[in-house]
């Protein structure tokens, strides 16, 4: 009976040690990736390929989701604003919610499940099929050749995708608000133009999406590289990528928002 | 330049507490095909990974092409690996690249050769393994035997001095098996390289290698030329060469007495 609490304690201890260990190896892996990034820019076509597979291939889901999110915002926003008789402010509501919050956050969440999971699965399988070892045996550093180009490709793609998401969303809001419901087009656009600030709103949104891009990609790459080389290991790593990076996005969003907009 | 490309003296290796190799002695001369054989889980692949520098010796001497593997740093190891090729069990081709790009990969990474020359070199290497016609295919379109031959072409792309083979015959049909065996022998002879083959395909190995080491439970249990091993009366070698079910390597996993497990009373 005495052993019960001791075994429990030991399990908790093992988990804590394991988590700290993973944070340590993850940080070291991230630092190594940055350190070995020379090739990603020296041979930029390696990075361009990854911009294609992380960015261009995510376009459809980003654009379609952006459109629908904007349309819903238009509908809901109109319903609420109408009660106060200020439906011309619909453009402001739609654009600020998208540029400040929904654009970076939802685009990053979609990016984590579309591109992040793909990166983890690809690297995990490359490891399971000994492609990573083969590269090492050919005296080619896999961090420089495989990991770093994917990192930069995804980090470059993320703010572009978020911007497209926001643009598509604003268009969706316009479709519902102006075309469908009949809000005055002039005030929709002019109020938006007057209220959205380039530095306060757009730049902060871009900063957010860059931070999210770094977080999602670093998590996805590390999970793939660290995955046990089995079918089960890769599948678990892929799930962990989506879960961990989604939580990281939302957590980081709160912190960034607190710093960026609390004084406004 | 020493005549021995690989020199191993009293080599031991442990994964944590578990001693996997205990005092191995092995030499591979330049131009030889040397086989490392033994039952699965006996430490063969560990030995190959030590020679390739993926693991470090716990104790003893391991020298590959003049480089002391227990002291070499990362730069020295990468320099050595440019003179070394490795064929993985299932080829380990890069699945996102065509056959041509796979073979061109080491050339593009390590040389500044112009594209036309890389093109010619790649086709020459592919021709050597009989797959020049398959250069545009993707790895997923190849059979297991073809994938391994492409991997072999990739391994010889930089004209290495040493090629390591991890189970090159595993899962091949008899024709592909013979083709792969002949290729290993022919490439070793024509390119003047040294080959170390980890395998448990005894018949194919005895046909084409110069010298065999049997690894069992972390030690060299037997060694010799194929003729010596065929004639050997040592129980372990005899069991292995003739594929007998029971012998020094038992058929049964250690278990309590049968009668006890079935709960029978004598």
Give the terminus-to-terminus CA distance of chain A.
59 Å
For this structure, what is the CATH homologous superfamily of chain B? P-loop containing nucleotide triphosphate hydrolases
Structural class of chain A: mainly alpha
Listing every helix as H and every strand as E from the N terminus to the C terminus, the arrangement of chain A reads HHHHHHHHHH
Number of contiguous helices of chain A: 10
The portion of residues assigned to helices of chain B is: 25-40%
User: Which pair of protein chains has the largest interface, and what are the residue counts?
Assistant: A-B, 14 and 23 residues
Describe it for me?
The complex is a heterodimer of chains A (264) and B (266). Chain A is mainly alpha-helical. Chain A has one domain. Chain A is built from ten helices and no strands. Chain A has helices at 3-35, 38-42, 44-55, 59-83, 90-128, 131-137, 142-181, 185-195, 198-226, 231-261. In chain A, α5 (90-128) packs antiparallel against α10 (231-261). Chain A is elongated. The model of chain A has no long low-confidence stretch (mean pLDDT 93). Chain B is α/β, with parallel strands linked by helices and 266 residues long. Chain B has one domain (4-261): P-loop containing nucleotide triphosphate hydrolases (Rossmann fold, 3-Layer(aba) Sandwich), CATH 3.40.50. Chain B contains ten helices and ten strands. In chain B, the strands form two sheets. In chain B, strands 6-7-8-3-9-10 form a six-stranded mixed β-sheet, with helices on both faces. A four-stranded antiparallel β-sheet of chain B has the order 2-1-4-5, with helices on one face. In chain B, β9 and β10 form a beta hairpin. In chain B, α3 packs across α4 (115-128) and α3 (99-110) packs parallel to α5 (144-155). Chain B is globular. Classes of the chains: A mainly alpha (264), B alpha/beta (266). The interface between A and B is medium-sized, with 14 and 23 residues.
């Amino acid at each position: 009976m005495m052993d019960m609490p001791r075994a429990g304690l030991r399990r908790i201890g093992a988990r804590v040690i394991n988590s700290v260990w993973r944070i340590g190896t993850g940080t070291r892996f991230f630092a190594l990736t940055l350190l070995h990034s020379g090739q990603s820019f020296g041979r930029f076509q390696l990075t361009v390929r990854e911009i294609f597979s992380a960015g261009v291939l995510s376009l459809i889901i980003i654009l379609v989701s952006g459109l629908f999110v904007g349309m819903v915002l238009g509908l809901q926003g109109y319903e609420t604003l109408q009660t106060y008789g200020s439906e011309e402010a619909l453009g402001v509501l739609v654009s600020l919610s998208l540029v400040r919050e929904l654009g970076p956050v939802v685009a990053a969440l979609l990016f984590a499940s579309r591109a992040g999971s793909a990166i983890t699965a690809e690297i995990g399988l490359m490891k399971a099929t000994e492609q990573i070892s083969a590269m090492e045996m050919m005296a080619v550093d896999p961090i420089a050749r495989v990991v770093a180009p994917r990192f930069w490709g995804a980090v470059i793609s993320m703010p572009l995708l978020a911007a497209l998401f926001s643009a598509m969303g604003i268009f969706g809001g316009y479709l519902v608000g102006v075309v469908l419901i009949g809000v005055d087009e002039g005030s929709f656009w002019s109020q938006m133009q007057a209220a959205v600030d380039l530095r306060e709103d757009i730049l902060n949104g871009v900063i957010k999406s860059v931070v999210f891009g770094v977080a999602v990609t670093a998590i996805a790459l590390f999970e793939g590289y660290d995955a046990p080389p089995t079918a089960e290991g890769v599948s678990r790593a892929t799930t962990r990528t989506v879960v961990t990076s989604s939580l990281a996005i939302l957590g980081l969003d709160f912190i960034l928002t607190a710093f960026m907009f609390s004084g406004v | 330049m020493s005549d021995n490309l690989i020199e191993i003296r009293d080599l031991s290796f442990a994964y944590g507490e578990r001693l996997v190799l205990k005092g191995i002695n092995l030499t591979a001369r330049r131009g030889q095909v040397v086989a490392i054989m033994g039952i699965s889980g006996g430490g063969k692949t560990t030995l190959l990974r030590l020679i390739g520098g993926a693991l470090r010796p716990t104790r003893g001497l391991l020298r590959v092409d003049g480089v002391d593997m227990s002291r070499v740093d990362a730069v020295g190891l990468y320099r050595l690996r440019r003179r070394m090729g490795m064929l993985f069990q299932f080829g380990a081709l890069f699945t996102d690249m065509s056959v041509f790009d796979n073979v061109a990969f080491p050339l593009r990474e390590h040389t500044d050769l112009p594209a036309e020359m890389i093109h010619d070199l790649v086709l020459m290497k592919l021709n050597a393994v009989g797959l020049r016609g398959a250069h545009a295919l993707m790895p997923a379109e190849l059979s297991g035997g073809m994938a391994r031959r492409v991997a072999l072409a990739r391994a010889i792309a930089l004209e290495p001095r040493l090629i390591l083979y991890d189970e090159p015959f595993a899962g091949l049909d008899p024709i592909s098996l013979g083709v792969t065996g002949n290729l290993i022998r022919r490439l070793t002879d024509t390119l003047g390289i040294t080959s170390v083959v980890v395998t448990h395909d005894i018949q194919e190995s005895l046909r084409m290698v110069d010298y065999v080491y049997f690894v069992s439970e972390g030690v060299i249990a037997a060694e010799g030329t194929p003729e010596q091993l065929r004639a050997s009366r040592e129980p372990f070698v005899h069991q292995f060469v003739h594929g007998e079910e029971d012998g020094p390597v038992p058929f049964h996993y250690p278990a309590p007495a049968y009668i006890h497990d079935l709960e029978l009373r004598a």
